[in-house]
Design brief:
Layout: H1 2-9, H2 14-19, H3 49-64, H4 78-88, H5 93-105, E1 110-121, E2 134-142, H6 161-164, E3 171-172, E4 183-192, E5 198-206, H7 213-219, H8 223-234, E6 241-249, E7 256-262, E8 275-285, H9 290-294, H10 297-318, H11 329-341, H12 346-361, H13 372-381, H14 389-411, H15 413-416, H16 424-440, H17 442-447, H18 454-476, H19 484-517, H20 521-544, H21 550-568, H22 593-614, H23 628-647, H24 652-685, H25 691-713, H26 715-718, H27 721-728, H28 736-779, H29 787-790, H30 792-808, H31 811-835, H32 840-858, H33 866-869, H34 872-884, H35 888-905, E9 913-921, E10 926-935, E11 948-955, E12 966-967, E13 978-986, H36 989-993, E14 998-1005, E15 1013-1021, E16 1040-1043, H37 1053-1060, H38 1065-1086
Antiparallel strand pairs: 1-4, 1-8, 2-3, 2-5, 5-6, 7-8, 9-10, 9-16, 10-13, 11-12, 11-14, 14-15
Helix pairs in contact: 3-4, 3-5, 4-11, 10-11, 10-12, 12-13, 12-14, 14-16, 14-18, 16-19, 18-19, 18-20, 19-20, 19-21, 21-22, 22-23, 22-24, 23-24, 23-25, 24-25, 24-28, 25-28, 28-30, 28-31, 31-32, 31-34, 32-34, 35-37, 37-38
Main location: cytoplasm
Family: Belongs to the unc-13 family.
Membrane topology: Peripheral membrane protein
Length: 1090
């Protein structure tokens, strides 16, 4: 064995030849490509014509001298097998007939039955101890017909082997003592001539040895043992006991049999005698073929297997299908017969299958998974020393050859297993599994002890293959014309190929290599390729220099983007060693930044100019109210943002300056667009008399500007200002980003807002004239026209114009227009209301107009919101029109309502107070008032006191025309008089319940010589008097304390309105009285305190 191993170690280093390749770094673009490893030449699977003829003869001989019953799924007809062999060996019909005739004339082989007696179970116990000492006699009886059928249906065979078969043809097993389940595992070769008349006989006997009675009694265990002693006493000493037999016809056997057979009795006594496990194999001895005489059986079978498998594979390829490793029934039958007749062991068959498949795999295309079965079989049956030296060398050579071939495929896996073929990943994974299983075999470890670990070999192959692949791609992209621009394009294509390859490694191949061999292919490939790429890119940027032309700038930008994508693929820091050659690669491109920024602006400006020039200022559709140029501009700005995101400059300070430049250019383009689109509108509308068309264009222009404003407003998000602020926080002063970028943005938005407002203002001015005319007509309409009919022209005008604007303006611009129109409309209404203060009819029309205009401008939520409509001007106008439209009596009622509210809001009693008790008696329709007292009155006389009395009247007078005023007694010099007087007023309940109905308590200072002075007024709301709210009579009436108040010194707006109604006598009387009271109050307010 040592000699064999030393001989194997002296063999040519096939593995080293395949994978030990000297790798070196390429220093520049002009370095010669490294020498690639020589391709491993696979062993040939073809035979010479002489070898094929000898092999064909042996295959025909196997079919012609077939023995046994066919196996399931095997071919039965010999003619079919012969036709298959003719096809598999590519033999012409005439040549096939000649070879067949020669084989038929050859001497027949010696037919043999290889019988293995494995074991028995459940046999009879013949000895006193209850056990037996079994052995078997077996042989073949020739020329005697044995009935067929199942064992249970056969006749009992009373004849035994020792009586029917000559002693020299009888074979005997060993004796297994004292057991009922003997195990022999002995094999015998039994020759026979004619299978049709031959039968196999096996007898099982219990060896009987001479023992003394004392010994037998010592082994006695029960009554059955005692009976055996008496039985043995009657038979001859040394006579063996019959345990059973098995008789089989050879022609009923298959080529291989492995069964349990029942042991048959000679008589009906003890019919159940147990079972015997037998194995049979019908084999040949002294085959007459040249191959069998000159070559070992194993070698012949290997060659036959190789020939037939090669034929199977090529047949599938001819049918455009892939062979899955399954042999056809014809091939399986021939190989089974050949291996059986040659008496090849399972191990040698597995080894032959491995050798054949491993050789064919290197030259034919079929799944590598077909190699797993023979690998497993060899590993399971491997016993050191089982093979001869030349067989061990052959097996070792097959291991080395397949390993070298597999490594060569792994080295070239990108081209051998392209992802364009769907099953490539599965094929590579299958190959790796085969190599892993092969290198784990005990046979591999013993026969190839000096082989490096498989992960190391595969890693070296992958590294070498990656470098070779890169240089092949570099050569593929080599430009036809030598120039710096062409070199840049070639380098860009090379980098993109590297990125594509790394994506494949990351998403597909890395998982396969890691799961199988724990190799991180992606990390290894990235380290190799990034170094090669970095060297070439750095050399290229150095050659370009600082003077970057626009064309070169574009080329460098594409290269930068590709390098950035490549660098982003880098493995995590835990998966890579140290720094990368691509770290800080952006510094190589710093000279090109100005060119990139200028190119971006120039391209965008050209697109804006072209978009505006081609724009006809027509909305794109019903839902899209801006024109084509706005869409083009949005796309243009999106492209700028995309360029900025692509650039994503790593240096924070430089990234900030680049972003400032992008924002500046974008804002500049926005203002340029506004100028261009307005000029385009003037160009299209010049010479047109249709004002509607001009209005349409103006609507489109302001819509385009609004769309632009929305796009500009998204710059902070599109340019990732928040992330930029976090990056530059350490290098910029606090607030610098806000002061720079946001200031630029707000300036641009302010400019756009001004342009939009100017355009909307122009549209509004066209409508304001019409609104003013209709409101003026509304005021001057005849009194006979109903207010609802009078406002119809105004509402129809607004409906038409606002519907048109809503259709042609986007919502933001339409809302701005509505705001301007609403403000203008309120201004016109205020002026109209001021001119019609004395006309309640005209004011009523304006009031109804305001209500309808509010509904129109709100438009059920589609127009202005309520908070935008209800401005201070609107609320004041609404109050004024409510008053102006009211009748004189309604105004008087409102006056008393306001005085009651004024009194309720008063929190002090600086003028004094009165205390009353009032109730309404519904049964008598009387209002009963008890005036109890007054307190804290002002001293109005020169003596520092007053002579107070109270005047009681029910107001408004038009509600209580028949009730005269009442007065209390006058109290001399008393600022806290106690009146304690009761007054009753006969009045219906209904007028008392109306808003503004009240009991006016006027406190006066009696003056003998002149007019009485006013101390103050108090108002008791009648609706709050007990007894008015229900039919029940009031119970205990509470006291009510009312503070005294003065009329408003600056004049009341209600009184002003009443004063303006000169033709209304009632209004004038009420105004004179109220003016008189106000005058009295003002005199007292100016009087100094005594």
């Amino acid at each position: 064995m040592a000699t064999l191993l030393s001989h194997l170690q002296q063999r040519p280093p096939l593995l080293r030849q395949a994978i030990k390749i000297r790798r070196r770094r390429v220093r520049d673009l002009q370095d010669p490509l490294p020498q690639t490893a020589p391709e491993i030449q696979p062993p040939s699977h073809h035979f010479s014509p002489e070898q094929r003829a000898l092999l064909y003869e042996d295959a025909l001989y196997t079919v012609l001298h077939r023995l046994g019953q066919p196996e399931p799924n095997h071919v039965t007809e010999a003619s079919e097998l012969l036709r298959y062999l003719q096809e598999a060996f590519h033999v012409e019909p005439e040549e096939h007939q000649q070879a067949l005739q020669r084989v038929r004339e050859l001497e027949k082989p010696i037919f043999c039955l290889k019988a293995t007696v494995k074991q028995a179970k459940g046999i009879l116990g013949k000895d006193v101890s209850g056990f037996s000492d079994p052995y078997c006699l077996l042989g073949i009886e020739q020329g005697v017909s044995v009935p067929g059928g199942s064992p249970g249906s056969r006749h009992r065979q009373k004849a035994v082997v020792r009586h029917t078969i000559p002693e020299e043809q009888t074979h005997r097993t060993q004796v297994i003592t004292q057991t009922l389940n003997p195990v022999w595992d002995e094999t015998f070769i039994l020759e026979f001539e004619d299978i049709t008349n031959a039968s196999f006989h096996l007898d099982m006997w219990d060896l009987d040895t001479v023992e003394s009675v004392r010994q037998k009694l010592g082994e006695l265990t029960d009554l059955h043992g005692l009976r055996r002693i008496f039985k043995e006493a009657r038979k001859d000493k040394g006579q063996d006991d019959f345990l059973g037999n098995v008789v089989l016809r050879l022609q009923d056997l298959h080529c291989r049999e492995d069964q349990w057979y029942p042991l048959e009795p000679r008589t009906e006594t003890y019919p159940d005698r147990g079972q015997c496990h037998l194995q049979f194999q019908l084999i040949h001895k002294r085959r007459a073929t040249s191959a069998s005489r000159s070559q070992p059986s194993y070698t012949v079978h290997l060659h036959l297997l190789q020939q037939l498998v090669s034929h199977e594979v090529t047949q599938h390829q001819a049918g455009s299908t892939s062979w899955d490793g399954s042999l056809s029934p014809q091939a399986a039958t021939v190989l089974f017969l050949h291996a059986t007749q040659k008496d090849l062991s399972d191990f040698h068959q597995s080894m032959a299958q491995w050798l054949a498949y491993s050789r064919l795999y290197q030259s034919l295309e079929f799944p590598s998974s077909c190699l797993l079965h023979p690998i497993t079989s060899i590993e399971y049956q491997w016993i050191q020393g089982r093979l001869k030296a030349e067989q061990q060398e052959e097996l070792a050579a097959s291991f080395s050859s397949l390993l070298a071939y597999g490594l060569s495929l792994i080295r070239r896996f990108r081209s051998v297993f392209p992802l364009s073929v769907s099953d490539s990943p599965a094929r590579l994974q299958s190959l790796l599994r085969v190599l892993v299983q092969m290198c784990k075999m005990k046979a591999f470890g013993e026969l190839c002890p000096n082989t490096a670990p498989l992960p190391q070999l595969v890693t070296e192959a992958l590294q070498t293959g990656t470098t070779e692949w890169f240089h092949l791609k570099q050569q593929h992209h080599q430009p036809m014309m030598q120039g710096i621009l062409e070199a840049g394009k070639a380098l860009l294509g090379l980098v993109q190929d590297v990125i594509g390859d790394l994506h494949q490694c990351q998403h597909t191949w890395d998982k396969i290599f890691h799961n199988t061999l724990k190799i991180h292919l992606f990390s290894m490939a990235f380290r190799e390729l990034q170094w090669l790429v970095a060297k070439r890119v750095q050399d290229h940027t150095t050659a370009v220099g600082d003077a970057v032309s626009p064309e070169m700038g574009e080329s460098l930008f594409q290269l930068y983007i590709s390098l950035k994508e490549l660098y982003q693929l880098r493995p995590s820091s835990s998966e890579r060693d140290g720094v990368l050659a691509l770290d800080n690669f952006h510094r190589w491109f710093q000279p090109a930044i100005p060119s990139w920024l200028q190119k971006t602006y120039n391209v965008a400006l050209a697109r804006v100019q072209r978009a505006v020039q081609m724009d006809e200022l027509v909305p794109l559709g019903e839902l899209t109210k801006h024109s084509t140029s706005a869409v083009d501009l949005s796309t243009c700005f999106a492209q700028i943002s995309h360029t900025a995101r692509q650039l994503d400059w790593p240096d924070p300070e430089e990234a900030f300056m680049i972003t400032v430049k992008f924002v500046e250019d974008t804002c500049r383009l926005a203002l340029v667009y506004c100028s261009l689109i307005k000029a385009r509108a003037r160009e299209l509308s010049s010479g047109q008399k249709d004002q509607g068309q001009a209005a349409n264009m103006l609507c489109v222009v302001v819509n385009d500007m609004e769309q632009l404003r929305l796009v500009i407003g998204k710059l902070p998000t599109q340019l990732a200002w928040e992330a930029l602020e976090q990056r530059v926080g350490a290098v910029l002063e606090q607030g610098q980003l806000q002061n720079t970028l946001h200031a630029q943005l707000q300036s641009a938005l302010a400019g756009l807002g001004h342009e939009i407002r100017t355009g909307v203002r122009t549209l509004a001015e066209q409508l304001e004239v019409g609104i003013a005319k209709h409101i003026q007509k509304l005021v001057g309409v005849r009194e006979s026209v109903l207010p609802e009919d009078a406002i119809l022209p105004l509402m129809k005008f607004l409906e038409v114009e606002l519907c048109y604007m809503n259709t042609n303006l986007v919502q933001e611009n339409f809302s701005s227009l509505l705001t301007l129109l609403w403000t203008h409309t309120l201004t016109v209404l205020v002026e109209a209301a001021a001119s019609q203060r004395s006309s309640s009819l005209a004011s009523n029309r304006l009031k109804i107009a305001l209500q309808n205009l509010e509904i129109c401008f709100h438009a059920e939520g589609c127009g202005l919101p309520p908070e935008a409509l209800h401005t201070a001007t609107f609320q004041a106008l609404q109050r004024d029109l409510e008053l102006q439209a009211a009748s004189s009596r309604e105004l008087i009622r409102k006056y008393f309502c306001s005085r009651i509210q004024q009194q309720a809001d008063t929190t002090s009693e600086e003028l004094g107070a009165v205390t009353v008790k009032a109730c309404y008696r519904a049964s008598e329709q009387k209002l009963r008032v008890e005036l109890l007292s007054a307190s804290s009155l002002l001293p109005l006389d020169s003596n520092g006191s007053s002579d107070p009395f109270v005047q009681l009247t029910l107001e408004p007078r038009h509600e209580f025309p028949e009730l005269a005023a009442r007065e209390t007694q006058k109290h001399k010099k008393d600022l806290h008089p106690l009146f304690d007087e009761t007054f009753e007023f006969l009045v219906p309940a209904e007028p008392c319940r109306k808003a503004g109905a009240c009991l006016l308590l006027t406190v006066l200072d009696y003056d003998t010589l002149g007019a009485d002075d006013l101390e103050g007024e108090a108002f008791l709301p009648l609706c709050e008097v007990p007894g008015l709210s229900g039919s029940e009579e009031p119970g205990e009436v509470p006291q009510t304390r009312l503070p005294l108040t003065y009329p408003a010194p600056n004049g009341d707006p209600i009184l002003q309105l009443l004063e303006g109604r000169k033709g209304d006598r009632e209004a004038q009387v009420f105004v004179r009285l109220r003016r008189h009271r106000a005058k009295q109050a003002s005199q007292h307010a100016l009087r100094p305190a005594p």
